[in-house]
Fold this sequence. Notes:
Helices cover 40% and strands 18% of the residues. It is an alpha+beta fold. A 6-stranded antiparallel sheet has the order 5-6-3-2-8-7, with helices on both faces. Strands 1-4-9-10 form a 4-stranded mixed sheet, sandwiched between helices. α9 (263-276) links the parallel β9 and β10.
Amino acid sequence: MQLTELVDSLFAEQPSKVLYHYTSLGALMKIVASGSLHATEIGFFSDAAEMKHAADILRVHIAQRIEAQSPHTKLLSQLREWIYQRLTHGHLQFVVSFIADGNLLSQWRGYCPHGRGVSIGFQPDLICQAASAQGFRVGKCIYESGKQKNLVESILTSIENLATQRGENTDTSQRHASESFHDVFEEVEGDLVRIAALLKHGTFNEEQEWRIVSPIITEHSQAPIEYREGRSMLIPFMEFFLQKDASNHVPLEHVFLGPTPNVDNSMTSLTRFLTKHGANPKQGVSYCQIPYREH
């Protein structure tokens, strides 16, 4: 199976339940006003080690094939080094994360400012339609180690087969001898990055995360990339535009208010804000019922 076919199979499953995006009250206001979400460059995620996780899995299985005296040892040795350099520092990819459960304590703690968090629920078909219109793809993250192992084995076999078809570039005027298979790697780089975006460590399994994944960006200076201020650096993002209803409002399905010290006032002001801007969630606004605790 070619890598492109693997990518298509991974992104073939479509969500059927409400998808929640965890964020801050301030971000909610901007989302309602702009009709868009920020798709963050995946290397700048708060849990950005996941791209390294994908690279580590690949490198482990490459080492196993080399130790088993694979006939593709030269190819695999070059691939092991190339993955370390390119998978986490190569092409850019922008992602928006959604969780199947809109009321998870781990998400309130990990992705929302203390006392000011919300999770915004969207109908999955509207997310999928918006993604398709903008060249994004929707995929479900893979947590199970067995599935990841099988996927990585398929990836490596596909690359070996492609290298057999393309052959080794032995022209040293074009490639250094240590990079004789890099033409093959560059051919599959985009697909590898797409796959890596869906591989997460099993400890995050509770999330059951879905992601909308941007097209691969090869020329960042020409792409519509913007920046926002983070805690210690500028964070690159792209606008992901949501579909609006006939009244030009963002259609929300449900909103959870996260743990907060002033529940009644927070619920009242949040509901009034959404009503004022025509963004009334079909299933209303709910409090998470998780006790608020000071840091």
